[in-house]
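Exam revision sheet. Question 4 asks you to relate a sequence to its structure. Input first:
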Amino acid sequence: MALHTPLAAIAATSAAVLALTGGSAASALTPTPSPRPTSTSSGEGRVPAQDRQFLIQAHQGNLAEIAAGKAAQSKGKAGSVRSIGATLVADHTRLDRKLQQVAQRLQVTLPTQPTARQQTKAKELAALSGTEFDKAWTKTMIYGHRAALAAAKKEVADGSVPQVKALARASQPVIQDHLDRLLAAEKALGALSPARPPAILTVSLPRMVAR
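Answer key, structure tokens:
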């Protein structure tokens, strides 16, 4: 499925992220690092910057969304949050598998973990619990999915490599479905209190994010 890069407003991640309190919950914020495909400088050079950047950002967004989904399954209080979390894990794992295959064919090297900003936000979410976690997690996922949707649309419009454009096009209905479910969950949970929003929601969003 950040922040960061335009793709992921959200989420949670990897070894650099402080684990959730409790042994069984610790792994929820730690995604399995993706394999680094073989790459050559000539391969990187053949892929235009827009397409290469989309592959990298989308991959990091997927890693963050997968980890965030696991965190929601572990920490979510509301059934809707846990259900959406499971969907994120399944869908972003599938999307990322296809993305890695394309990146490997194009010899584009992918990062093995989300961005530093995504990891910071994961740490901030990990400090929350109960309904406060549900609300902050949902809000963060909404921001991230809006950013991811904008990035996918930009790749479809401005990308040059057919395989990468196809990935972006195929991801749009999936991301939109997630966003629709997240918006419905946010409405059910109620608005966050403006008096003391969690720190994770006070970080400014990238300019590309559509509000």
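Marking note for examiners. The chain has seven helices and no strands.
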